[in-house]
Amino acid sequence: MSHDDDPPEEMPSTPSQFARDHPAVWDAYADLGAATAEAGPLEGEEKRLVKLALAIGAQSEGAVHSHVRRGLDEGLDPAAMRQVAILSIPTLGFPEAMAGLSWINDLA
Fold it and tell me: Carboxymuconolactone decarboxylase-like domain spans which residues (predicted)?
């Protein structure tokens, strides 16, 4: 697997174990991630910030952590990731935005 959305080498234990137990499902999931990444004109940093915003909107701490880790690995400015959480205040609400910000700050 060498997709844009491959898991980082140090992946949390649950998805790591899932990938080992169900490699065909994991590969199909990675292929879907690659196909969606190629489905439009957004590039690198833009895609990462959009995916971070979606993770915050879904209130998924694990997904936020994943996109922050990947963003940092890709050289993304932590201030840009924090701004995504701040931008979510009027749409998602203050508590949800603060949760997203705290998850970003766990790693950045």
Answer: 23-105
